[in-house]
Amino acid sequence: MAKWNKIAGCVLFCIGAVTAWSAATTLSMGSFRHPGAGFLPFGLACILSLLSLPLVFGAGKETGRAAAFWPERAWARPLQGSLALFAYAFVLGLLGFVLTTFLFMIGWTRFMERLSWQTVLFVSAGVTAGLYLVFVWFLGVPVPVGFWRQ
């Protein structure tokens, strides 16, 4: 496991360093009181690089028995979740925000969380209504309406 921690730390450090360099050289940093477009990416990239250092230098200090990187099909749920989010993003423009979010929540709660149908429908309707209220009514964000209003 120490080897994987060291590799992950190095990869995260490189991502942070390259992002910080890119933000510093291509975007305006501005000042502390009036930040430019590169201020937030630069700051977050520096934080990522700093937080990756304990993985790089502390990885050899672990004791105990080594565990498998992906024990027995532990990769299946993250893969299913990633595919579900990809499908959500792909279908969002076609079906609209409300229908896509409702169907996504049905799929997630029924097949990923294995809840009962009554709970699935209640949670899906509640989450969809809550997200619609927050994004459309309170924040005024235009959301895709789908094929029936075109």
How would you portray this structure in words?
- It is a single chain.
- The chain has 150 residues and is mainly α.
- The protein folds into two domains: 2-61; 76-149, no CATH class.
- Helix content is 69%, strand content 0%.
- The chain contains five helices and no strands.
- The chain has helices at 2-26, 39-58, 76-95, 97-112, 117-138.
- The chain is flat, with a radius of gyration of 22 Å.
Structural class: mainly alpha
- Number of separate domains: 2
Q: What string, H for helix and E for strand, traces the elements in order?
A: HHHHH
Oligomeric description of these chains: single chain
Q: Give the C-alpha Rg.
A: 22 Å
Query: Termini, distance in Å?
Result: 53 Å
Give the biggest sheet: none
How many DSSP-defined strands?
A: 0
Short summary:
With 150 residues, the chain is an all-alpha fold. It has helices at 2-26, 39-58, 76-95, 97-112, 117-138.
Helix-strand layout with pairing:
Blueprint: H1 2-26, H2 39-58, H3 76-95, H4 97-112, H5 117-138
For this entry, give a set of tags.
single chain, 150 residues, mainly alpha, 2 domains
